[in-house]
Amino acid sequence: MIDLRIDDLTAGRSSFVAGPISMQLGRGEGALIYGGNGIGKTTLLFTIAGHLPAIGGTVILNGVDITKFPPYRRDLTLVPAESSTFPNMSVRENLGFALNHARKRPDEQRLIRAFDLDALLDKRGGAVSLGQSKLIDVARALMYNPALMLLDEPFSHLSEELAAKVQDALNRYRIDRGGMLIVTSQARISGFDREIPLEHINHAT
Fold it and tell me: What's the predicted TM-score (pTM) here?
């Protein structure tokens, strides 16, 4: 069964255009979009999430065409490359924000333990390291329990040990929730069902 279908999706900002890309994902599958800096990986991810309008093509999630839906109506979460941790909220409040909006309540204690966040819960989001902020961002996204997770360079600022923890948590999400992943990376990473090398097909309009 196809749960995610992207057909000829083209995205852009100003005179920058990326795509088109097409992919299909079933329950529990993941796709990797990889390539160098400046070729449109982030632009495409933000378009799938609804933060940028699609220039062309469609995004269909669980049988619904969400191409023109606002982000809050899409059953997905986006973890950007840069920190999205709320700096003036505690880590506990950052995670609680997701729990209050989760479509299906996750096992939050398991996620907290998986990312070793227990000792950070009362710290402000602005007082943690870049690596810890990345863990918080991924944990918060997982707590939304979405059908689809979009992650832009999810292993940046992480040691090999912490990157392995994130990978394990994402794999568990795919198995337990049947969730789907789209990950962007500068480097090719193994373990994905679909791999899309995004070449220099961008142009000025």
Answer: 0.88
